[in-house]
């Protein structure tokens, strides 16, 4: 066998159609707002204002767009309860709950490695490349 990485590469993962699928899914679940919303909804149903308060730095418009996108992708359900004012609750679907473990793992990794990343960034910036 010749040297190289081809012996360990799964060629099925590198087919253009599979790359497009992965890219499309990551576009939704890979953005920071979607990750934070999924993490918040992992604890159960939440109202819009509860999500906004818990996430903090997200604008009302961005939260609305993020929730709509997650709902469109089948990850979140939106339930409107008729009252004055109307009550709107968001909850993870079964598909959304299946995303919770990987999202929480990424969040834990980010928290656990934040200092190392900061040190690496500072060293890079100090080099002036």
Task: Tell me what you see in this structure.
It is built from 5 helices and 3 strands, in the order ααβααββα. The model has no long low-confidence stretch (mean pLDDT 87). Strands 1-3-2 form a 3-stranded antiparallel beta sheet. 61% of the residues lie in helices and 11% in strands. It has 129 residues and is mainly alpha-helical. A hairpin with a 5-residue loop joins β2 and β3.
Please render the helix and strand layout as text:
Layout: H1 16-29, H2 32-41, E1 46-47, H3 48-55, H4 60-72, E2 76-81, E3 87-92, H5 94-127
Antiparallel strand pairs: 1-3, 2-3
If you compute it from the alpha carbons, what radius of gyration comes out, rounded to the nearest whole angstrom? 19 Å
Distance between the termini: 38 Å
Silhouette: globular
Strand order of the largest sheet: 1-3-2
Q: Into which percentage range does the β-strand content fall?
A: 5-15%
Question: Biggest sheet: strands, sense, closure?
Answer: 3 strands, antiparallel
Order of helices and strands: HHEHHEEH
Helix content: 55-70%
Q: What is the count of DSSP helices, taking H or I runs of 4+ residues?
A: 5
Helix/strand class: mainly alpha
Q: Oligomeric form of this entry?
A: single chain
Total count of strands: 3
Mean pLDDT: 87
Q: Low-confidence parts, pLDDT < 50 over ≥5 residues?
A: none
